[in-house]
Specification:
Largest sheet: none
Helix content: 55-70%
Strand content: under 5%
Number of helices: 2
Radius of gyration: 21 Å
Number of domains: 1
Number of strands: 0
Structural class: mainly alpha
Length: 64
């Protein structure tokens, strides 16, 4: 599940929970699943957006 799907589930859950009185429980379930999906997506895909793992890159110059 990506960030976009998680946000979509959160939005659908909020609409169902607070706008449609008959679907309150389903809306809350979608809201919780969306929030959990967003947290998981941020923790898994967040570190991949750069070299933040502490890797040291050594550059050597060759003089002739």
């Amino acid at each position: 599940m990506g960030i976009g799907v998680a946000i979509l589930l959160i939005a659908a859950g909020l609409i169902l929970a607070f706008a449609v009185k008959a679907a309150f429980t389903i809306g809350i379930i979608l809201l919780v699943v969306g929030v959990l999906g967003l947290i998981v997506a941020m923790t898994i895909f967040g570190p991949r957006r750069g070299a933040r793992d502490g890797a040291v890159v050594e550059e050597r110059r060759v003089l002739r």
